[in-house]
Amino acid sequence: MKKSFYIFFFFALISACAFGQNDQKSIVDELNSSRWGQGNVKVMQDDLLRGKLAVSSTDPLDSVGKSTTHTSANTNVPAGTKVREYKIQVFMGNNQQQSKREAESKQAQIKSAYPELKTSVSFQSPFWRLRVGNFRTKEEAQAMMQDMKRTFPSFGREMTIVSEVVKR
To answer: How far are the Cα atoms of 28, 44, 125, 140 from residue 47, in angstroms, in the given order?
Structure first.
């Protein structure tokens, strides 16, 4: 009798665990849920955003070099909405005069080879940066970076993919 009770209890526990794992909540739903003994967080989210921006990530900070999974459905995003995009950082230097000239020189070379890509040279103390493109996924940016490495082999060692949150 005791043995059958333990077996029944064991299977009931496994069944409860299995059904509990199928419940997938969004991060907003998880934050809005209330738990005894913990503080409460209330996230206000417009219903239009719930379906428009679907970004899933294993690492929300998305540091360079880590393999992360990103899916983004931001093709029909309303104007002014912030979305995560990826850029190829072609150059970064901290020599004030020389780095600016080098960034602008590389920018001209890239614009002549890839006129369809947006390029930007920026200064954020103490670095000059040249970034290329606005890619929706990391995979798109990686494919273009491989193509650019074939076109500009001397740039290849410096190229890296960075993510930015930008307004559309």
So the answer is: 12, 9, 39, 29
